Structures are given as C-alpha cells and as structure tokens.
Amino acid sequence: MPDPKPQPLFEILSPAGPVANSAAAERLQETLTQAADADGWRATLDAAWPALAPVAGASPYLAGLMRRRPANLRRILETDPAAGLARILAETDALDDEPDAVRAPLRVLKADLHLLTALADLGGVWDLDQVTGALSTFADAVCRAALRAVAAEQRARGRLVSPPDDPRGPIPGLFGLAMGKHGADELNYSSDIDISLFFEPRLMGLALREGEEMQDFANRVGKGIAGLLSERTADGYVFRVDLRLRPDPSSTPPVVAAPMALAYYESVGQNWERAAFIKARPVLGDPRAAARFVKALRPFIWRRSLDYAAVLDIQAIKRQIHVHKTGEGLQAAGANLKLGRGGIREIEFYAQTQQLILGGRDPALRRQRTLEALTALSEADHVPASVAQALSAAYVELRGLEHRVQMLDDEQTHRLPEDPERRAAVAALAGWSDLAAFDAHVEALLVQVNTRYGELFEGGEELDSAYGSLVFTGVENDPETLETLRRMGFSEAASVADTIRSWHHGRIPATRTARGRELFTRLAPRLLEALARSGAPDDAFRRFAVFFSGLAAGVQVQALFLNQPRLFEMVLGVMAFAPRLARTLGRQPAALDGVLDARFLTDLSDDTGLTEQILREAAETEDFEGAMNAVRRLHREQMFRIGIHALTGRAGPETAGRAYAALADACMRTLSPAALTEAERLGGAFPGAVAVVALGKAGSREMTAGSDLDLMTVYDAPAEAASEIKGWSADVFYARFTQRLIAALSAHTAEGGLYEVDMRLRPTGSKGPVSVRLSRFDDYYAHEAETWEFMVLTRARVVWASDPAFGLRVSAAIEAALRRPRPGVDVAGDIRRMRALMDRERRPHGFWDLKLSPGGQVDAEFAAQFRQLQAAVAGQPLTLSTLEALHDDPVLAEAWRVQQRLAHLLAAAFEGRVDPEAEPGVFQLRLAEAAGAPDFETLKTELTELRARARKAFERAVPAGRDGDPEPPRSIS
User: Fold this and answer.
1) pLDDT-based confidence at 376, cuts 50/70/90?
2) If pLDDT is split at 50, 70 and 90, which confidence band does 973 have?
3) What does the pLDDT look like over 736-767, one tens digit per residue?
4) How far apart are CA 276 and CA 297, in angstroms?
5) Where do runs of H (alpha helix) occur along 489-578?
C-alpha cells in the first residue's frame, strides 16, 4: 500500500475537545491573527483555529509557544508532520559547535518539536507510537549533539586529541545508553531522559592528551552533557537529564568505567536493574564499545536458568505494589497515572517481570516496548490474550492522559490535578466536556488495571502493605511509597526510603549477597509494618538501622525473622521503646546470637544450664582475658534475653530479678576461680580460702538490668601463710585476688562490659582493706557495725567460695552477726533517722524516681530489713526476699511490687534516668499494664495514692525513736 500523500498539518487537524477557557483562547487568537495578517498566512490560521482553540483554552504552555514564535507555528501548520519532524531532526544533527553556540538552537528546536508533537497528538494525526517515537528520536539527536558540542570544547582546550570525525565517535571509548522510556522509544511529553554513561579506559586513554586523568575527564564530559541539555535559559531547556541509572549511583562517579560496571552487575546487580536494562539501547558515543558492553550485559539481563529464590525476588518487584480488590480509595482527583494504583507502572512491571523470568529461554520475549512485550507474552501463551489486549488498551489511554496532564505547563508530573478547573482542562484535551463523566471514566480505568494486576499473581506472598505500596526499586523515591510511609507514622519518609533502597543495593554486609537481598525483599514490608505497629516508628527504625547495618552477615538473621514473626515483632518492639537493648544490638549485633538458641523463649524460671555453659566456655579459653571475653559474650546474650522477657511481659519482676541475679551469679562463679588462678599465677599458690558475698539487690536476687554488684570478699588463712612465688601475706594475696575479680567483672574489653562493682558496703567501707579476714568480720559486726550495716547484711549471701566448707562458715558468720543481740540500740529509731536524712539530702529526681520517692522502694526495703533484724534477734527464720519479709505489711509489699515492675521495665529499656512522660504512648501503656492500670494517666494517679499509703505504712511499721541523726551511711542499696 503506497504511503499517504503528504498533507500540511492544518488540513488534517481535528479539535481535541471543547474549549475549556474561551477567554484564554480568544486572547491567543487575537495575537496570532495580527501576526498572520502581517505575514500573509491568515487563511492557514483560520483553517487551523477550530483545532487550535481547545489547545489554547487548556494549555498555558502550548499557548505560550504559539504566542512567542508565530512564524514557527506557521511553518509547523503548513508542513506535513512527518516532514516537519524530519526537518527538526536534520537541523539538530547539523549542530556541530561548542556548547555556547548550540545552547539556544537546541532549545528552539525542542520548542518546535514540542509544539508539532502536541498538535499532531491532540489533533488526532499521530497515535501513541508516533508521538513517543518523535519525542524519543529527537532525544537521541540532542544527546548526540550535546556530546559533539562538549567534545568540541574539550578538543579546543587541548584535552581531547582524537579527530572530530573519528569513526569511534566524538570521544573514542565513551558511550551512553538510553534507559527507561527513552531506551524503549516510549518517552512521554515532558519526560526527563535517563542516560547511563560509560567509558572503555583503554580506548579513551588513547584519545586524551598525555597526563590527562581519565575519570576526571569523563566526569567533566558527563556533567557537560547534562548541563547543556538541562540548564534553563530564556529559551527554556531541552531535557532534564538523569545520570543515576548507573551502578550504585550514590558512591560512583557520573561516568563509570565499563569493566567496573560489568563487575558490579555480575556481583551485586539487582533484579530491578535487570528490568531497567531490558529497555537499554546505545544512544550516543562509540558505537562499537557500546555494542560490546550491551553484549556483555546480556547474560546478566537474560538468565537461562533461575533458582526458585531468584524467581520469587523478581516477582517481588510487582508484589510490592498494593492491590485493592475494590475501587475503594481510587479517585480521579489527584490520581497518579504513572505510579498510583491502577497506573502505567503496574502494566510495565508485570510485563518486565515476566520477561525477566521467561526471556532467558525465549528470545521472542525480549522486547523493549511495553505494548510489544505484552503482545509477545500473549502470543507465547504466558498471559491470556484478552488480558493482554485490555492492559494494552489501558496503557495507551493512560499514556495519552499522562501526556495531556504534562502539556498544561510542561511539568514532569503524572498526577491529574486536584483542582477541578485544571482537571477540566485535561478532560477537554482528552475530548471530554463533562468533568464528572471524565472522572468516573478515569476511576473505572484505574480500577480495571489494578484488578487485572492483582489477578495476575494471586496466591503469592504479599510484599505490599495494608497501608499501601512499598516499592524500593530504582534510584529515586517512589511517591506512592512515601505516602505509605507517612501513613505508617514515619515523619522522615524520604530518609527511611533512601535507607531501605540503599540496603536493597547491597551497601551493607547483610544484603551484600544475592540471597541476602532476596530475603530482605521479603522482610522489608514486614519490618515497616511492625515498626508502624510499635507506636514509635522513627526511633525504632533508626535503632534497627544501626543494628542491621552492623551485622557481619544477614542471611541467617533475616531467615530467622521471616520464619519467626513473633520473635521479629518482639525485637522490633525493643527497637521502638528500649534504647538500652537497641544500643546493645547496635554496638554488638552478636547479642542477637542468643535468639538463635532454642532456649531464648524458654521460661526464665526454667534451668537452661546457663551456669554450666558459661563455666565450660570460659574453661575452654587459654587465659584470664579469654575467660573474661567468653563470659561477656554469654552475658550479653542473656541480658538481651531477660530484657526481652521483662519488656514483653513474658516474665514478672520476681522471675526477671532472679534471672538477672542468676546470670550475675554465673558470671561470678566463673570469674572468681579465674581471678584466683590469675592471682596464684602472679604470686604463687596460697594455703587459704576465700568467699565472694553478694549484697544489695544482687544478694536478695532482686536485680534489674541496671543493677550494679555490691560485693565483699571474706577470707581465712593460717597466720603466717605466704604465697609460694612472691611471698605475699594473706591480706596482700586476697587483696590481689579481689582486685582481679573486680577487673574481671567491671573492665570493658572488645566484647563489652559486665557490671559496675561497688565494694563500699564491706566492713570499714572504702577506708579498710579490700578483702576482710573472717575473724575481723566477726569482730567488726560484734563491736563496731552500725544499724545500717546490719540492714545491708540482711541481704548478704555467699555466691562462691574456693572451698565449699569455708562458704558455709561465712554464711554462718553472717547469720550469727544478724542474730547477735544489740542491747541499748534503738534500731527503729536509727532507721527512721536514716530515712529522714535521705529525705533531706537525697531528694528524689522527679515523680519517676521509684527508689527515693516517699512511699517508694526505699521505704519498703527499709521496713523489710527492719522486719528481718527483728526476726533475727527473735530466732525466727530469715529470708533474703523483700516481699517475703513484708508478708505482714501488705501495703508496703504492694508498693514495692508495683514499683519493682516499673523499675524492671525502665531499667531494661533505658540507661540512666528517664522521664516516661516523654516516651512513646506504647511504652507508657506497657508501664500501665505492668502495674495493672488501664492507662498511663490512671497509673500516675494510682501510684501517687499507693505511695501515700506506703509512706504511712512505713511509719507504722518502723516506729519513731530517739532524736538525732546517725553518721550518714556509705551506701544503701
């Protein structure tokens, strides 16, 4: 069939639709009429005006092009559109000068191209393929012109020495690939152009003057091309240029050496990058180098065999888009025709993912253009013909609407305006006079695409979210995903999206392997949803990012999180409101190793063989420092485990307190013999015995995550005994042992620390020897000790002894000291004066000082210790437990129990003082739940009332005695 006879454009134009703004159209007509009358083309204008009026009434941008250059409009109208396009391309290809000389001509030619394309599109002369083909072909021409101009400039400056007519291009070895819609000849009306620039070092090096640094030169060329085309001048711009579709754009230069790029794609290239290269084609520069590069990339793009995990990862690209089974929430006003639900991207993603999975074995599916890909998939029976036809028709219509939205103001937008007047202008350009009918049609179209899209992969794992789409492919943030993140409660949505996308790029060890990235694709939506549910998504994400980035490898941990969602939720809850535990994970990600242990969720009251494990692993080390590190590793894991149990309510305060104490005991029982061995190594064997005594909350087994260790060491030895090597006496030897033990328990090594150790509660405190002989212990408590020191002794217990028999002797000495009568001592009066002194000199740090507040834990513990001192003298059974000691004081017992629960949560979650008033609501609710209150405000009210009753109960339990203050205690724990 012969080609149709060429006709001038004005003869074949049809009106696009109604005139949306007749006043704007009339103003333009008046201006153009004057120009046409002056230059003799009034007949052409009159014939074309019915088609020009709807354009002038809807598009300020196109009206401006016609107003500024009436002569150009005349030439476009009086020329066959194909000939007009050929003329624009020929003039572009003829540009062959430096940037300053071609900057203005390129912009004028772009304006002509835009006006021609818009009129041919809106006037019904060109179909979608012709429109996008014209835009893409012109983009090709301006890219070549920009490279010629930049090369001419570099040649004039002496940096480039190859001839301008070199068959390998203006700069041998340098080439660019058109990506995305440009590569597929599918550019939209106001699209930017994605170009990936590369160079062959061997070839480009030969084209440069001696000593010219290749990478700097390539960068200068890349920036020169982008600047020449993107810069806005009085004549406008040519194209916005995006150079980011290159390997890892945040850490690579704008122009990448081809060998490095190939190495990247072969090692850490992602499936979305494979999808991007489906549309890639050489567009500028050295044609042979470009062809070699594309050929080398082919195995990366088109894999003949894919394992199941890789298939899942490819399918994940499309499952990240949220699919609604109904049209709920889909409306024309503000609809994103490209990235929104039911938009162009859904059609493109489906075609590309199917191509990636199937195209390795079937070359017929390797089509760059979306419509051709859908046809090929249908012909190969991979998608029903009816579905391919429906999606193709929708694609054509959506692309047409997208163009009309962009024609209003030449903006790179894909959203239908929310403003009814501007949306009516789009409707007019699409042939609609009734805005409500247009809106209904668009909404039905979007629902149809979104529904079809969902049907194409029903039954797979959902990688979107109930909140919306979660798409992290590409090099820029997806607008729909940003909206989803904001709905989830993230205040810095763009920052979160940037971080997630960088993880997808394999920039951290956890996602550096293909398997790690595939797992993260599945984990990411679960992560974000769990963070949203945490109530503090910003804090939780920041802390998770520190932890996740610090993992040495991520496959095992990610697989664990995917297979144990409850555990994953627990860990993320920690990230939300427990900075102490989150910091532990951030500094020492290996703390999570304990999660891999089957015992992690075992009840804390069950014997899991912890002490035996710590002893065994420490014994397997070669020296004292090795034992210290082994203990620290297990301590870190167990502290994390107990903290998780306490924070999530799996363990109550009594159980958690005993677990923390059991862990401390295990550490001391492991490091005490190691410290003794170290002392013997330095000073020689010694014929004595020593015991380690825990005091305070360690002694009563009521520790929290923030408790330190109050200790004393007691020894006995023959009077004249000396160590074998150094001849140390007993006091020196056991002082050295105690110092080694303190260091073992408190020093920070590469594996972290254990506890702060306080030895000031020993007889004579910090003034006396660091270790106490048993006979001196007996004598001190018989003649010198004050009431507060006996109070301390009520919570003393032997944790370890070098000789079990000696340990029993020390335990007996402690009990004997407590039971020994102290005639004439007003114990109750001493305690009341002590408490009064604390009220004056150790004021509570706000409402949430659970220890020092009137009616707080000190009141309950003082009363409990008073009860124990009474029971000791009366010959009654003794207990270390505060609650057991308060069995006759229910109000004090309740006050201590409630505040101990709160103390456990606060200590597990935070280091140092904290104001729960400033913490997330989810943590405040957890505090309330721990205390049995329905909400945080009720907790504060009930705690205030409980403390008032507890203070009165304390005053009744410990009656006031004689006036006068005792010497202030050294420490009361």
Assistant:
1) very high
2) very low
3) 999 999 999 999 888 888 999 999 988 877 77
4) 12
5) 493-504, 514-534, 537-550, 555-563, 565-577
646-660 b/e with 16+ CB inside 10 Å = b? Answer: bbbeebbbbbbbbbb
**Residue linked to tokens 């254990």:** 754
Q: How far, in Å, are 292, 331, 391, 444, 452 from residue 343 at the CA level? A: 36, 12, 11, 12, 11
pLDDT, mean of residues 195-208: 95
Considering only CA atoms, which of 370, 198, 360 is closest in space to residue 279? Answer: 370
Q: What is the CA radius of gyration of the chain?
A: 39
Residue 394: both structure tokens together: 């929708």
Give the tokens for residue 278.
């489906």
Q: What is the DSSP letter of 505?
A: T
Query: In the structure encoding, which two tokens stand for residue 906, read together?
Result: 């606060």
Instruction: Label the pairing between strands 689-695 and 797-801.
Output: antiparallel
Q: How far apart are CA 565 and CA 905, in angstroms?
A: 23
Residue 114 has pLDDT above 90, yes or no: yes
3-state secondary structure of 338: coil
> Per-residue confidence at 597, pLDDT binned at 50, 70, 90?
low
Q: Cα–Cα distances in Å, from 110 out to 85, 88, 102, 104, 227? A: 11, 8, 12, 10, 16
Amino acid at 158: G
Residue 675 CB: number of other CB atoms within 10 A?
Answer: 27
pLDDT, one tens digit per residue, over 439-492 is 999 999 999 998 888 776 555 555 556 777 787 777 778 888 888 899 999 999
Q: Is 235 helix (H, G, I), strand (E, B) or coil?
A: coil
Answer for the pair 559, 354: CB distance below 8 angstroms, yes or no: no
Q: Which of 467, 473, 503, 499 is nearest to 485 (CA)?
A: 467
Beta-carbon contacts of residue 403 (< 8 Å; ≥ 6 apart): 121, 131, 188, 189
Tokens 């456990």, residue located: 904
User: H-helix or E-strand containing 237?
Assistant: none
Instruction: Note the pLDDT of residue 278.
Output: 86
Q: What is the DSSP letter of 749?
A: B
- Helical (H) or strand (E) element with 372: helix 370-379
Outline where DSSP puts E strands in 862-929.
none
522 touches 461 (CB < 8 A)? yes
Beta bridge partners of 197: 176, 255
Residue 430, helix vs strand vs coil? coil
Q: What is the DSSP letter of 365?
A: G
Looking at 143-147, 265-269, 698-702, 819-823, which range is the least confident one? 265-269
Mind giving me the DSSP string for 653-687? HHHHHHHHHHHHHHHHHHHHHHHHHHHHHHH---S
What are the angstrom distances between the C-alpha of 214 and each of 154, 159, 282, 923?
13, 10, 21, 56
Give 402-419 as a DSSP string: HHHHHHTTT----BPPSS
